[in-house]
Amino acid sequence: MTATTTTATMSPKFLFLLGSLFLFAGIQVRAQDEEGADGIDANAEELCQDRPGDEYFRLNVEGDCRDVVRCTKSGLKQITCPSGLAFDLDKQTCDWKGKVTNCDKLESKSMYRPGVSYEEHHLIDFPDDVILRSEVESLVPAPLTIFVHKLGEVKVEVTVVVDAKWPQPRKVLPILRTDEPVCPEGKLSCGNGECVDKELFCNGKPDCKDESDENACTVETDPNRAPDCDPTQCVLPDCYCSADGTRIPGNIEPTQVPQMITITFNGAVNVDNIDLYEEIFNGQRQNPNGCQIRGTFFVSHKYTNYSAVQDLHRRGHEIAVFSLTHKDDPQYWTQGTYDDWLAEMAGARLIIERFANITDGSIIGMRAPYLRVGGNKQFEMMADQFFVYDASITASLGRVPIWPYTLYFRMPHKCNGNGGNCPSRSHPVWEMVMNELDRRDDPTFDESLPGCHMVDSCSNIQTGEQFARLLRHNFNRHFNSNRAPLGLHFHASWLKSKKEYREELIKFIEEMLARSDVYFVTMVQVIKWMQTPTELSGLRDFQDWKETCDEKGQPYCSLPNACPLTTRELPGETLRLFTCMECPNYYPWLLDPTGDGFTANK
Ligand SMILES: *[C@@H]1O[C@H](CO)[C@@H](O)[C@H](O)[C@H]1NC(C)=O
Ligand SMILES: *[C@@H]1O[C@H](CO)[C@@H](O)[C@H](O)[C@H]1NC(C)=O
Questions:
Q1: Same domain for 34 and 102?
Q2: Quick one: which of 461, 464, 457 has its CA closest to 499?
Q3: CB-ligand 1 contact for 579 (6 Å cutoff)
């Protein structure tokens, strides 16, 4: 026998022995820990050292395999599976007894803790084979290393060194799929077998004693998740979905679809960027229907010049919200409560409406800071507050880009980034999905570089020339496939960082406008087109795009008020609020978005 012998030629006996070795390994380690144990609680401290609080394990292997404990601040807490079920250590949940293969173990082998290495010695009989080290190693899962010390005809001593790099144990999961129902109708089983109303699963607050009802809440696992797209139920103008998200609304031939391009900016509008916006949207650049090109501005509150926002709106651009505080803590957004999202987004809209005097109800879109979507909470708030669309969810770079969709049905692509917190439930909200851009410098060369959602996150773009290629390559990707809207999402500071970026963007816009099938439009204009899909040939007279065709009137004021303001919420800061409207008493902030002043016990 040579070292190249494959595992397929190993004797079944050997495989069996190795299998039992690993079953045995778990017991070895714990048995040592248990030495000298008197009562459960006396030993709890030792048992719980370095052990995560959400991990269930057994204290002994006697009995019917239903009892497990976990570590809590007040000692060990025991749960018992319902009769007929047993606790599966690897899955960390109760399961049908016949399916649980680890009743003879005290803890899952995935419970080896990272950074701790265990060494175990076992003698195994191998009566008829000579075992080569390479053969043994090829049988063992990666984190385990085996050293064969002695090769002999009869016995092999094996040292198992577990250099624990296993992932952290999983949280306890509810039992959502069982052959026979565990709970009465309308209820589902928690990880410990307790039955809880289905609606209480994934509602943001633990209802199971083991808290497992909040541990499987992704777009794929939430028991109350939105159903898959059903095109017979989901019809325009209010609902749009397709199985893989790439279908063109109205089944229009790709060649008859206008290539819409949405230029968007995130952040405060002020002296740092007003000139850039003037330069891009200079009033001289027209779409094929004779209306000027338009952009969408996701405005954050602090440092924003509301007189400038008012002027952008007057000139037909779309104003949307990007939060009130833009707090520099991604977790704040991912874990934000309903009230956080309400104060941040509805609050920011109120401020814009008041201080930019936008009274036409046109602020209906939002984007989450850091694109940290807030799950169902964010979208529940949006529905209640009549926000029509979100523009924060990203779709990873695919062969064919994705069209915007409504969230009545399940989103048609994986939750990619966004802190993993995409909405799982059904919401009456449009998702203006951000298709990642292909940033490969030489698209003919098929290296696998992940895409980027904001243009400035395409970190490999360093020169104007590279930026120019990025724009054209991605335009072609959309234009030559399903013509899903091409989103060009910027932070103004990136475009301002290099003159050549600005020049290339403007060159690209002008090149596109020389064609007859490309339109630079706002998010709302995209939705309007999707609601009434109209072929290129009829687009010159498309009324919904004519509404913002003309600028409205003159600038409201030539010299805005520069109100120096403070608020109790930002102690020690004096901020200037620029507005054509009257100065408020205080700088508008979370608890006081109108700046009228507030009382603590309101
Ligand atoms: C605020 O915006 C208005 C309108 O664009 C502009 O006239 C004014 O100079 C701006 N103020 C500051 C301080 O940027
Ligand atoms: C605010 O807008 C409304 C409606 O467009 C207008 O009637 C009113 O005069 C504006 N107020 C100010 C102070 O500009």
A1: yes
A2: 464
A3: no
Instruction: Give the CATH number of the domain where residue 475 resides.
Output: 3.20.20.370
Q: What mean pLDDT do residues 193-208 have?
A: 91
Question: How many domains does the structure of the chain reveal?
Answer: 3
- Which ligand has its closest atom nearest to the C-alpha of 555? 1
Of the candidates 182, 189, 186, the residue with the CA atom closest to the CA atom of residue 198: 186
Residue range(s) defining the domain that contains residue 583: 557-602
CB of 367 closer than 8 Å to CB of 348:
no
Same domain, 38 and 92: yes
Phi, psi of 490 (to 5 degrees): -125, 155
Q: Which of 274, 281, 576 to mutate to test ligand 1, by most ligand atoms within 8 A of the CB atom?
A: 274
Of 309, 357, 362, 551, the one to substitute when testing ligand 2's pocket (max ligand atoms within 8 A of C-beta) is 357
Instruction: Return all residues near 15 (Cβ < 8 A) that are at least 6 apart.
Output: 139
CB of 333 sitting under 6 A from ligand 1 = no
Sign (positive/negative) of CA torsion 50, 53, 59, 61?
Answer: negative
| CA of 353, nearest ligand number | 2
Distance between Cα 526 and ligand 2 center (Å): 28
Q: Please name the amino acid found at residue 185.
A: E
Are 476 and 370 contained in the same domain?
A: yes
**One domain for residues 529 and 562:** no
pLDDT digits (tens, 9 = 90+) for 525-547: 999 999 999 999 999 999 999 88
**For the segment 23-45, what is each residue's pLDDT rounded down to a tens digit?**
333 333 333 333 333 345 557 77
Q: What is the mean pLDDT of residues 63-85?
A: 82
How many whole angstroms from its chain centre is CA 9? 46
**Is the CB of 311 within 6 Å of ligand 1?**
yes
